[in-house]
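Thread: iron/sulfur cluster complex, take 2
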Amino acid sequence: MELTRRGFLKLSGAGIGTAALVSMGFNISAYAAGMELRTSTATETTTVCPYCSVGCSAIVSVIDGKPVAIEGLPDSPVNRGSLCSKGQAILQVSTSDRRLNKVRVREPNSEEWKEISWEKALDEIAELIKETRDANFKIKDDKGITVNRCDAIANLGGAALDNEELHMITKFARALGLVYIEHQARI
Ligand code: SF4
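Output below.
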């Protein structure tokens, strides 16, 4: 039987945990017979923690299309199965009931946040980007050197964006001529 690093850690972890519980007087066989892991029917897939540039890998357990657990990926040469406290909480990126999933806007001089539709928000963002970019786009700088840039808009990526999303966002930003492009994970 071929034993992967992950399989080995699972087995040795189970062994160590069982030995520790036996030494404390627990009846392990009774516990083991009645216990079912909440991930026992899950499909596992791998991902990369979005929070910082260390780039730890994780295993996501999914049941019925919903993530139910996250753990470090033992096969990753970066984190070797460990995750820091932020990484252990990445499940909340998709499951937290405190996560906003509607657009809110605070209009000028208002103290209230109000909900608006995605269509309205995207239209307004697109109009403002176009207006600002057209008003500030420079073909040449003060020395007559061709620069083709817009330094009136900055682009800041967020930690919950994945590599593919950031690739597309950066391409889009560069196509607009933006030069101030940064990401939270690098700051
Ligand atoms: S936030 Fe923690 S778990 Fe996530 S990549 Fe950084 S060090 Fe790794």
